[in-house]
Amino acid sequence: MKIEFESIGTIHTPFKELEGMPIQPTGAKGIKGKICLKDEFKAGLKDIDGFSHLILIYHLHKTNGNALEVKPFMDTQTHGVFATRSPKRPNNIGMTTVKLDKVEDDVLY
Length: 109
What we know:
Largest sheet: 4 strands, antiparallel
CATH superfamily: YaeB-like
Oligomer: single chain
Strand order of the largest sheet: 1-2-8-7
Structural class: mainly beta
CATH class: Mainly Beta
Distance between the termini: 36 Å
Shape: globular
Radius of gyration: 16 Å
Number of helices: 0
CATH topology: Elongation Factor Tu (Ef-tu), domain 3
Number of domains: 1
Order of helices and strands: EEEEEEEE
């Protein structure tokens, strides 16, 4: 079975390369970003400003390959990829929860 998704927007952060990117959420505390939705999805933002947080599902587009077993940073043993936060997943899908500060037109901050 093949499943395909179409992007509804783009997440922009200060991180442009994998090097220097935080590996844990605490390393990104206080970092600001924005989400720019494509025009055709703008109507779906109606009333979103009533929420404090968003759950983002995204494509890990800078991941090099995948593996079913990985050795996490600062660990000496391998673990199954699904038991870790490794981005080297078979479908390169990531998920996070972020604080919603404001909404301006089709841009979420």
